[in-house]
Amino acid sequence: MIDTGNTAWLLISAALVMLMTPGLAFFYGGMSRAKSVLNMMLMSFASIAIVSVLWVVVGHSLTYSDGGPLNAFIGGFDYVGLSNLIGEIEPAADGEGGYPLLVDAGFQMMFAVITVALISGAIADRAKFGAWMLFAPVWALLVYFPVAHWVWGDGWIGGLTIGGYEVIDFAGGTAVHINAGAAALALTFVLGRRKGFGSESMRPHNLPFVLLGAALLWFGWFGFNAGSAYAANETAALALVNTQVATAAATGAWMLVERLRYGKVSALGFASGAIAGLVAITPAAANVTPLGAIAVGALSGAVCAYAISWKFKFKYDDALDVVGIHMVGGIIGSVVLGLVAAGVVGGSDGLLYGGGIGLLAVQVVAVVGVMIYSFVVTWVIAKVIDLVVGFRITEEVETNGLDHELHAESAYAFEELDEIEAEAVSPPTPPGGEAASPQVKA
């Protein structure tokens, strides 16, 4: 029988996670330059279109069905087209299950969509849109589906144990954030740096967009984390509370670092700190106490505030800080679980709660495995695309702006704005023909 409560919660959670990708579009769009904002946002929206179809056709099957002899690395084809899931119900027991398997497929579809979209922020202002449209499905097929299978589909990470401890990744620290962050790093090496990187100001053009995007992501993340309980139960409640307090702590830590380093706090820092906290608590949301969640969030906010500046030191152009927030934040959340995981809320104890070193070790192995695979395969995919069709735009297109050159449109009516500005600063001409003085104009 269908458990209507669990089914309703999963349906709502799927919708919340879907909202995160438009939220990401606003977050990235606001952080980009005005001449390329539409291109940046379209990369996220294009991910919705491409990955949704691909997920139904083969993605869910490769992630969750039995892959036979290759099951440690990739799933099989039992669920191709999702036809075999129609009418199937997850067995209900002890308040869990009781939802149609199609709901699960739809919920996980949204995870695949946003993981692909996350990568785009690293290559803002310099990637061909057509090349991105080719990269997105190939990366999903060769990287996301296999890694998600490793973690959630009975692959090698899901079955890995060290000293009796299993890997903990409640909602996607490895499969989503470290995976996307490592891929973003690889793309920065293939595409190279933007013109003027390190010497010209490339500040966000619309901070209200950034704050709106961060708010939508924060709101949607409750579906991302609490929905991963797959039931309307105590685990979902814990994940919801932990998500909130970790994010709040991360914003405070990020702003404190800004205050100490620069003497001021910023709206961009608040928004970035929130995302860092959301990322870090994702793998740990159901395995730490609320106080542990605050510690995870504060640590991620402080460390990621420094990590985003590493691109200037090491000369890789991670345009919108995908590496510094998602990869670094995902590593923090996944590894720190080896210290602060609390068996009292479920699962294993970390070192600080009397557990053994095995949990820390197994978390590190999972993190390193995903990072290496994602980076290497992404680099190969991007390099092949670059050789075949070219991944990077020309210098002229980059200078003029991707919106006008690639999409024949603009987010803002620049000519009209220039005319309005000119009228605002030019004194009116009186009937006599002489320009009025500033005092007369006032």
TrEMBL record:
Residues 8-412 form the Ammonium transporter AmtB-like domain. The keyword Membrane applies. It holds the Pfam family Ammonium_transp. It is found in: Cell membrane; Membrane. Residues 423-442 are annotated as: Disordered. It is a multi-pass membrane protein. InterPro entries: Ammonium/urea_transptr, Ammonium_transpt, Ammonium_transpt_CS, NH4_transpt_AmtB-like_dom. It comes from the Bacteria. Keywords: Ammonia transport, Membrane, Transmembrane, Transmembrane helix, Transport. The chain crosses the membrane at residues 6-28, 40-58, 105-124, 131-152, 172-192, 204-224, 236-256, 268-286, 292-310, 322-345, 357-382. The keyword Transport applies. Belongs to the ammonia transporter channel (TC 1.A.11.2) family. This is Ammonium transporter.
